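::Amino acid chain::
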Amino acid sequence: MTVKIGFVGVGGIAKRHLTNCKNRPDVKMVGHCDVNLERAKQIAAEFGGNAYHDFRELYDKEKPDAIVICTPPFAHGDIEIEASRRGIHFFVEKPVAVNMATANRVAEAVADTGIIAQVGYMFRRAEGPKKARELLQGRAIAMVQEHYYMPGLPPPPWWPKMALGGGQLIEQATHMLDLGRFLAGDVKTVAGCTTRVRDWNPPPGYKPPGPGLLKYAEGFEIPDTTALVMQYESGALGTLSCSMVPQAAWDNGFKVVADGLLVTLEGANARWVGDVKGEQPSSKDWPNFVLNDFIEAVKTGGQPTVPYTEGVKSLAISIAGYESVRRGGAPVKLSDLIA
């Protein structure tokens, strides 16, 4: 079976997925939609298919079997709901939304129509985290420690706007929060604290240095440093610390303390010590596995390996963190947020 695939949003992370689809003989790319029509035309010329400015027009004219959604966080909602209503399966990049109302609406549409909806939490499908999950099964988990440090601000203009991107906690650290759920189970409560420790207003005469992360931005609205304390349903505790205050390098880390075992994840590679010792690297092409799983599910009618409901639960941790800040640091129950 050849799967007809369309893309909605063709900037940023979409290039990886476009290249992956191009290399699969069982995929035909039929259309590409973007708010920047010229960019959509360039992608169509390179990867095949037609260019569109309106995703509904792409759906109705091309009638794809599935779509890959790589839009900024604020654009989610109608794209997924309209696909669901037409019986079009979708793969959506994280985060699934910037608020729970949108995520819950999409989840309802997915449940009502029964389409296959997969979320791009790529770490779940890599060999290292999968081996770590296997080793942790049946063990009492005590602590999940996560950190996500970025050496600056990503350049898209929506990034420093809370209503558009949700800040680092929603847009980037969600990978760590989802990985915690994958390894230790669902989160029960979240308590959060945020701060902004530096002046992000551009100094006189400042010009961005070119491609790469920024040290300053007009209209910076988001926290630059965040900390969460989580209680898992199992009774385990977890912490997340994240910051985008400019420093030397990216540093993303993950540890799990369990009865008889200490697991460390560095990127998608795992190592462990305790009553067993070892390591599990991930394949070079591990970031493609989550989309490949989706394509296979569309071909066979199988189940998604990272269903949309998982994206909703992981988003809820970030939303609960911000809600806790609004409540002066009081813990927030995730069950109050998920429909």
The domain at 123-283+315-336 is CATH 3.30.360.10 (Dihydrodipicolinate Reductase; domain 2). The CA atoms of residues 141 and 196 lie 32 Å apart.
